[in-house]
Amino acid sequence: MSDTKILTLHPDPKKSGVNIDQGKYDVIRKAAFAVLEREKTMKPMAFLQAISDAVGPDFDGSAAWYGESVKLDMEARGELEHDRKKGTLWLKR
Question: Can you tell me the distance from the alpha carbon of 32 to that of 35, in angstroms, rounded to the nearest whole number?
C-alpha cells in the first residue's frame, strides 16, 4: 500500500480516531459503500464480514479491524447511520 496515513474520525467526540494507511482506508471505504448500496441495511457483524469477503484474503491486515475503523469514520463524517438500539447500519442519504 502507500506510506500516506489518514487520521480517522470517531463519532464519540471524547474518543479519537486511528492513523491508518490511506490505501487500505480507500479499499475498505469503497467496499463499505458497495456493500451498503447493495444490502441497504445490515447488522454490524454482517457488515464487517461482507467487507472482509469483498476485499478478499489478499488484503494485508485484518479487514474487520479496518472495517470497524472506517465504519466509525463514516459515522463521524455523517455518511453512515448506526442505530445502536436496533443494531443496524445504513448509508445516510
Answer: 5
Q: What is the dihedral of CA 44, 49, 53, 54, to 10 degrees?
A: 10
Q: What is the DSSP annotation of 49-66? A: HHHHHHH-TTSSS-HHHH
pLDDT digits (tens, 9 = 90+) for 37-48: 999 999 999 999
- Kindly give, in sequence order, each residue whose CB lies less than 8 Å from that of residue 62, ignoring residues fewer than 6 positions away: none
Rounded to two decimals, the pTM is: 0.91
- Given pLDDT bands bounded at 50, 70 and 90, which one contains residue 2? low
What structural domains does the chain harbor? 5-91 (1.10.10.10)
Question: Which of 35, 32, 42 has the alpha carbon at shortest distance from 71?
Answer: 32
